[in-house]
ornithine cyclodeaminase
Amino acid sequence: MASEIIELSGHIIDSWTLPRAWDIIMDRGGDFLIQEIQVGKHKSEPSYVRMEIKADDEQTLDLILSELQQLGAMLVNGHDVRTARVEQRGVLPEGFYSTTNLPTQVRLGGQWVDVEHIEMDVAIVIDREHRRAYCKPMHEVEVGDEVVVGHEGIRVQSFERAREREIFAFMQSDVSSEKAKILMIQHIARQMQETRARGGKILFVLGPAVIHTGAGRYVAELIRRGYVQVIFGGNAIVTHDVEAALFGTSLGVDLRTGEQVEGGHRNHLRAINAIRAVGSLEKAVEVGLLREGLIYEAIKHQVPLVLAGSIRDDGPMPGVITDMQEAQRQMRRALPGVEMAIMVASMLHAIATGNLLPATVRTVVVDINPAVVTKLADRGSFQAAGLVTDAELFLRELVEALRHEGAFPDAAGLQAEAGHTQR
Amino acid sequence: MASEIIELSGHIIDSWTLPRAWDIIMDRGGDFLIQEIQVGKHKSEPSYVRMEIKADDEQTLDLILSELQQLGAMLVNGHDVRTARVEQRGVLPEGFYSTTNLPTQVRLGGQWVDVEHIEMDVAIVIDREHRRAYCKPMHEVEVGDEVVVGHEGIRVQSFERAREREIFAFMQSDVSSEKAKILMIQHIARQMQETRARGGKILFVLGPAVIHTGAGRYVAELIRRGYVQVIFGGNAIVTHDVEAALFGTSLGVDLRTGEQVEGGHRNHLRAINAIRAVGSLEKAVEVGLLREGLIYEAIKHQVPLVLAGSIRDDGPMPGVITDMQEAQRQMRRALPGVEMAIMVASMLHAIATGNLLPATVRTVVVDINPAVVTKLADRGSFQAAGLVTDAELFLRELVEALRHEGAFPDAAGLQAEAGHTQR
Amino acid sequence: MASEIIELSGHIIDSWTLPRAWDIIMDRGGDFLIQEIQVGKHKSEPSYVRMEIKADDEQTLDLILSELQQLGAMLVNGHDVRTARVEQRGVLPEGFYSTTNLPTQVRLGGQWVDVEHIEMDVAIVIDREHRRAYCKPMHEVEVGDEVVVGHEGIRVQSFERAREREIFAFMQSDVSSEKAKILMIQHIARQMQETRARGGKILFVLGPAVIHTGAGRYVAELIRRGYVQVIFGGNAIVTHDVEAALFGTSLGVDLRTGEQVEGGHRNHLRAINAIRAVGSLEKAVEVGLLREGLIYEAIKHQVPLVLAGSIRDDGPMPGVITDMQEAQRQMRRALPGVEMAIMVASMLHAIATGNLLPATVRTVVVDINPAVVTKLADRGSFQAAGLVTDAELFLRELVEALRHEGAFPDAAGLQAEAGHTQR
Amino acid sequence: MASEIIELSGHIIDSWTLPRAWDIIMDRGGDFLIQEIQVGKHKSEPSYVRMEIKADDEQTLDLILSELQQLGAMLVNGHDVRTARVEQRGVLPEGFYSTTNLPTQVRLGGQWVDVEHIEMDVAIVIDREHRRAYCKPMHEVEVGDEVVVGHEGIRVQSFERAREREIFAFMQSDVSSEKAKILMIQHIARQMQETRARGGKILFVLGPAVIHTGAGRYVAELIRRGYVQVIFGGNAIVTHDVEAALFGTSLGVDLRTGEQVEGGHRNHLRAINAIRAVGSLEKAVEVGLLREGLIYEAIKHQVPLVLAGSIRDDGPMPGVITDMQEAQRQMRRALPGVEMAIMVASMLHAIATGNLLPATVRTVVVDINPAVVTKLADRGSFQAAGLVTDAELFLRELVEALRHEGAFPDAAGLQAEAGHTQR
């Protein structure tokens, strides 16, 4: 019989932490004995519980503890974090600890140290000399790296659910197209303003439908207005945006009339070929070849673009990273400072981004397919919200909501410049 | 060996009528011999073909002819339409002709007579005395009714595809969320204006998500502006609209804040109960109980509402027709004069309406689920167009597009009155 | 300041009853003071809590209490249930109590009396003379009926989550097509056997795709084997089943070859007309017109069929109920004894059935569209499970799983008789 | 005014080639004058048309001709193919011809030469010395390559629709879950047998849901039976298959019980780490670490696996190609000899494969999401068929259908070995 004593404290009842803990213990076949419980008599009071966890064997207890840890449980007999050395390049030691995307600390020499740039499903490497702990993906570990193993001396900061009622909570409650999206869009607009006001960065992850539907102009507007600090995308969105800028089409469909003007495939290949001929997207802007569109605005306003390729790509467009590990590396490099992520009509790039984001980043997932939204928004965080809605109309209304909030003090009507000019 | 000679004329190449005819003949195991063919040398010239159709037996020939008929084929040796008497109430005679939703004529005494109020899958009854032909559903035929049988003396006016390129054609091309919807919405707005300008009626078929998403206000606006002449819906939309008007909620969700204010189920039952207590929706408006919302505006502006029930209904709300045959009858009665139908976030009522509409009515189907749009828009007509998009944002943009087109000459900004008042 | 003292007991921690209670209180703006709490030290021990609930006003307190009631909360100062008389036919008294689908009791003369045939969203009528309480839908209440109002003297038996791990729980956890369905189908087969072994009835709710996909034969097999006691459906399924039996087609598609044999619409109208001519489905079996198919087997094996119409119906087929309130009445009448409900490829009829079923009936919802499964399976009960899968292959595998479990002791291979005969 | 004379011949009416040609001409604003037309009097006779195509300018004419070419149109005044030299590495010359996936020939020295390994959206390079023409993607062209430009001297072999009615045609007709899938699966099984009988290769493109649903065993069975010659997949499917083989779970869900056994993320990382430790998948089989599953069988039976990575990957597993251009290259290398492609529950890899496959490869796309099937099956070929159905049940029934067809002469019942062993 294996056992361990843990503590949970804070708004553990309000945030369903305690019942989830009980659930885990029983689901995994363990048992618990409450040694002390203090339930906050009022909602403003924190609660506290100390429990002995028991299981038939050490392995089961380990599983239970590793899951409780993600809820913020701490072992009472707190030892330092345990580590092991990497002995083979790109291979983790037995029993390696794999991270969650929640803020995490490790105990080094009796003191808690933050794990830097936390992300999901990676290892924690300890740098004892500088008292640092940071994340490393499996394929980047080097021989000699000191990697965290087991579950002692690790503290995960579970989310406490915000008690004030807020629309993010409402958006999370379930994924359905039958909800009032205007309300949510207005809320997102307000969050964007607050994020920018405190200097936080906003990341957009964009799929090619943004261009096909003619919604690139709204993102361009957001870039001009300072609401986009980083863009993640792929070969398709940049290709179609350049195609739109050079030929007025997206996959051969005229974006002003909606008509198929031509075979279509030729235009996107011609667009790629034209940029390849000048050498880069930046050069194409410089020489005046590329004069409008989302990519043009991003380059003009020095918004970093990380363009990650995939096996379905034609071309590719210069600037698209064809090695996936390099692409992940550049995405990681662009993330510090990002406080809000808006993912629109993207699946591959959105999932990839979701894997890298800490849970503290407010994430909005917009797609017309409820299965995509469910998959993306359901990453175990209170910070991700999903909208099952139309990408084009979402972006249009988002621009409108920001304008209405006074975010564009000098702006004339959007309609005039964007939506209604095609006669 | 059975054979028959038919003619096809008009833009039969342009509209793919001729190849479709060949296709049918061969798919059904028949054969054809071209007796005369004149292909319009230019696109403005009509074409003409006379063919002998052959099949192994009369039954196969009959099948082929009945399908060719729907493409506009005419038998050369044109006899009068054949009929048989109904001998049993609600039962059609053997070999009855079942209609398409295309404009149809029958030959009576050597002359072509229009079939009145054509709709799909019903019988044609002949009134020789008044030289009339009209539709009757199976369950309404009476003993002695003279019903069309076979396929002689029947002429169906096939659609000729409009050559000028138009957005309706584009919208029909395929059902996808990855198309520029603003373009389509602006086109629909223009169609609505043209329809109203020539005195045509516009029918809205609405599902309850219109209310849940807070989009009822946009329909209310369209009613006030004279863009809604008939509404078809069910118990749910009226219940949730009244719930919204009386309690500010839809299924218990506060439409101003997006929060669940209460158990929810109680509010919709309370709404129904309140209207039942005063007796009718009209009375509720009269006594001042119902003072806003889509239903209120419809009653104030004398827009006919046909509310057809279903087995999933609670209540029902007074005014909801619980007998399905009576509901169909009232829907039929409301259709004359309708030239455009806009179906939003509805499946049951939209399919039912689609069954009753002649193919000449321009139909727009809007739903976020592509399967619903495909099912509804694909009714064999060049007049139905589908948008895979968000019902709420569609209606919002439709109002905006109409305003922008100058359809609301006196109107202040919609934002002020509608979308942004909830602070 | 309004307050009331309530008790919760049982596996209230395990079943998340207590945290949900706290959640409700705080979401609704109330407060609570724990007077006594006993947490079961082990998972086998029940827990108990007594709390004082406070709110700013009586109305808020009422809301909180009515929601807590659904979790099984009991007021400590237990009065008898309160009632009011119906004064207007079909209209409930102010403050009426609307039911959940959970087992419910009311206190009459200090004693708890079960509410008979509980279903959702209806009123409870008290018959003091016979000490009975039963459900009545709003439109059926008569002047003088004594209807329950408020929330005193009502006890709702909340579900306690079964602690033994079971596949139903697993199926409920989330709706996804990416789960091992064979496991679930085998589990359902075992549940069906157990249900039949103890004399429980199994209800099938079927949509027309069951016939279109050729899966009618599997349901026919289940009827022959005694695994179907009640069938709910609509005009479409019966029409297409009869079409298949008479003409070998479904919507004109040959079920043996998959080819469109003809215009299609004619066959389904001919099928309806043929049954109308003999008078009824039963008569059609009797005279030898209908000799195979799902409906034939149901009639032969005296399985009650409740066929509820809708406004999209052609015909309708004799036996289809066109009045919705009558249809609901007949559905209610067929439910006693039903312990398991299997809903396949149906939306309208499945929702309607879901509204009438008590939460104690094990419900399985099968549809290829995840949105339908989510909508149907998510009715607040631990007893509903959803499978996002193919209706045809589900039914085929269900028959196979029952056979494999030895449920068809004398059966030769299914393949021979069903799936592989079409050469 | 620009003009050109073209010829079309063969079953151009039957296959709708002629009307599509007229359509293109008129849609693009051109005009035509029929110089000679011979319509086959019977369906077995080929037809012939010679037309003059006119347009306002050369550019429009070019567009029309390039589209007509894809229908098999030939310029009467046939010149040799025109070419231009590549002057910049990875950049195509102005006016480059981009391929379709249809069989294509170019005229060299007056004679028609087949373009080798045709695929879509690439350039054609001419090797005059060896009288060869072959495809090259844009990024692989080298300075000096002689690339085809314009549209002269190119002949595309359009598909003629098979007149015998066949289930592939039926499967293509529309994408719907409401069709009889058993019929289609049996047809696919027969196609697979025929393909193998004539020595053709069968390619499987597989998504991770194949493993999550426990359907890996059916693919393993197909490998053992010789029905899989090439596999394309990604990091996820191989990781989850290895996880299943090593730990019995897929994403942490026990495949025998359907229960979540543990945090889950750890198991897939442990699986990757274990294979990284031994060095490769092949080595893992050799040393006895990997002893069952789809990957094990593929390695044992020497079925080539091309595993293409993506940015969402963890790990990655050894053998997964992280550079996208290298991955495409290896996919291309594995394609020769492939005559049938079966794509199950994959989107990214299926699209990528679709881009590389010639239109002559019979392609079956299986997914439960109709949008995915539509996107993939609709690649302008008569050879792609889509099934909206469950991946797991599809594969299970496919194995069953092959067994029933006698494809596994010695095989005992599948149920015993696969589906029903988990007690």
